[in-house]
Specification:
Structural class: mainly alpha
Number of strands: 0
Radius of gyration: 20 Å
Number of helices: 18
Helix content: over 70%
Strand content: under 5%
Largest sheet: none
Length: 428
C-alpha cells in the first residue's frame, strides 16, 4: 500500500511540476510587459497579441487535449507537451524580432495546452471521487505556485539576468521535466480504473463530445470559465504587472512583490476552496460569492491616484483568494460525465476560460490604443488608459456571475456518505 501511494504521489508530482512551469510561462508577460514592449517597440494591442496567442492556441487544443488524455494517456501527453514548451521557450528567448517571439509564445501555449488536462485526468484516475475537488485544489496550489515564481522572484531575476536568459533556462528545466514524465508516469495499460471505464472509453469520441457540449451543467461551466477564468487569466497574465508599474507608480521590484502576493493568495485559495466545497457539499454558492468579490476588487483597482502599501496589498490578496472560486467549475464538469470522459468534460469547460482570456487581452489592448487615438508605444501609457481595460474585465465577470447563478444546486451536492451524486442526465 505504501509503495502504491508513493508511486501515485510521484506520478502526480511530475504532472504538477509540468503544470507549474506552464503556469509560470502563462503569466510571465505580466512581469516582463514593459521589458517586452521596449525590446520589440510594441503598442498595447501588439503586446496583447503577443500574450494572447498562448490562449488562442490553447482554445483550439482544449477538446483535442481532453480526447487525447482519455485515449492516449497523460504519460505521452505530458512528455510531448514539455518538449514543445521547451522548444517554444528557447525560440522566444532567442528571437530578435516580434514575429519570432509570437511564434515562440504560440509553441509555449501549444505544449502547455495538454498539461493541465493531463493532471486532472491523473487525479480522476488515481484518487477516490470524493477527494477530487480536494486533490484538484492541491494540484492548483502547487501548480499555480508557478505564478508566484513569475512574480517577485522573476522580477528580481530579470533585473540580474535579463528576460532572454531566463526564458532559455526555463526551456532546459521544462525539457528535464518531460524526461521525468516519460520515466515515472505509468502507461495507460498499467492503470486500472475504479469504474467500467474501458467500456465507456470505447465509445466514438465525437459522439461523446457532442453529448457533453449539450449538457446544461457543462454549458454553464463554460460560461463561468469564459467570464471568471478569462478575466483572471487575462488580467494576471498581462495587465496586472504593467498596471502596477504605470498606473500605481511601483518599481519593477515592488511590482514583483505585490504580484507574488496576489498569486500566493490565489494558490492558497485554490486548495482551500476545494476542501471547503467538499466540506459544505456545494459548488454553486462558493462560485457566486467569489465572483462578486473578484469583480469588486477589480473595480477598486481603478481608483484614481497612486495607491500603494497596505490597502493595495489587501486588495490584491482578496482578489487572489476570490479568483480561486473558478476552479470549482472543473468539479462541476467532472460531475456531469462518467470518469472515463472526465478529461473531455473538463477540457470543454476549460475552453471557455482560455477563450475569454484571449479575447480580453486583445480587446483590452485594442481599446487602450483606440482611447489614445492610434498606435502609441505601450511604455507611455498611464493610469487613465487602464480604466477601459478594467471595465472589460468586470463585464466578463458579470457574465460569469449570471452563469454561476443558473447552475443547478442539486447537481453540485454530495451524499452524506461522501460519494458524489450523479449529475442529472450525466453523460456515460
Amino acid at each position: 500500500m505504501n509503495t502504491q501511494h508513493t508511486g501515485r504521489m510521484a506520478t502526480l508530482g511530475v504532472a504538477i511540476a509540468a503544470y507549474f512551469l506552464s503556469y509560470a510561462f502563462r503569466v510571465a508577460p505580466s512581469t516582463w510587459a514593459t521589458r517586452l514592449a521596449e525590446s520589440f517597440h510594441t503598442t498595447a494591442s501588439a503586446l496583447g497579441t503577443l500574450s494572447s496567442v498562448y490562449f488562442w492556441i490553447t482554445v483550439l487544443m482544449q477538446i483535442p487535449a481532453g480526447v487525447l488524455s482519455d485515449r492516449v494517456g497523460p504519460r505521452r501527453l505530458i512528455t510531448a507537451g514539455c518538449a514543445i514548451v521547451a522548444f517554444g521557450a528557447a525560440l522566444f528567448g532567442l528571437s530578435a524580432d516580434y514575429a519570432g517571439a509570437v511564434l515562440g509564445r504560440l509553441l509555449i501555449g501549444l505544449g502547455s495546452s495538454v498539461l493541465f488536462v493531463s493532471m486532472i485526468k491523473l487525479i480522476a484516475v488515481h484518487f477516490p471521487p470524493q477527494r477530487f475537488a480536494t486533490m484538484t485544489g492541491v494540484g492548483m496550489l502547487l501548480g499555480a505556485s508557478g505564478s508566484v515564481a513569475a512574480g517577485g522572484p522573476l522580477a528580481w531575476a530579470t533585473q540580474v539576468l535579463g528576460w532572454r536568459s531566463l526564458s532559455l533556462g526555463a526551456a532546459a528545466v521544462t525539457l528535464l521535466v518531460g524526461v521525468l514524465a516519460w520515466l515515472l508516469i505509468p502507461n495507460p495499460t498499467q492503470t486500472v480504473s475504479r469504474t467500467n471505464s474501458s467500456v465507456n472509453a470505447s465509445r466514438p469520441w465525437m459522439g461523446v463530445v457532442r453529448e457533453l457540449i449539450r449538457h446544461p451543467q457543462i454549458q454553464l461551466g463554460f460560461m463561468v470559465n469564459f467570464g471568471f477564468t478569462g478575466a483572471f487569466m487575462s488580467f494576471s497574465g498581462l495587465w496586472l504587472g504593467s498596471l502596477l508599474v504605470q498606473a500605481k507608480g511601483l518599481s519593477l521590484a515592488d511590482c514583483g512583490r505585490y504580484s507574488s502576493l496576489f498569486f500566493m493568495a490565489f494558490a492558497i485559495g485554490s486548495t482551500l476552496i476545494g476542501r471547503l466545497s467538499d466540506a459544505l457539499h456545494t459548488r454553486k454558492a462558493l462560485m457566486v460569492s467569489t465572483a462578486v468579490l473578484f469583480g469588486a476588487c477589480l473595480a477598486w483597482m481603478g481608483r484614481p491616484g497612486l495607491t500603494q502599501g497596505t490597502l493595495l496589498g489587501m486588495n490584491l490578496a482578496l482578489m487572489g483568494l476570490a479568483a480561486s472560486g473558478f476552479t470549482l467549475s472543473w468539479a462541476c464538469a467532472k460531475d456531469a460525465a462518467a470518469p472515463a470522459h472526465a478529461g473531455m468534460a473538463v477540457s470543454i469547460v476549460n475552453t471557455g476560460g482560455f477563450l475569454g482570456a484571449a479575447l480580453l487581452q486583445q480587446l483590452s489592448g485594442w481599446a487602450m490604443d483606440h482611447q489614445r487615438g492610434g498606435a502609441t508605444e505601450f511604455s507611455r501609457y498611464g493610469a487613465q488608459d487602464y480604466q477601459v481595460c478594467l471595465m472589460l474585465h468586470i463585464g466578463a465577470v458579470f457574465i460569469a456571475l449570471l452563469a454561476a447563478m443558473a447552475l443547478k444546486g442539486q447537481e453540485t451536492h454530495t451524499r452524506s456518505g461522501g460519494m458524489p451524486k450523479p449529475a442529472l442526465n450525466a453523460v456515460t
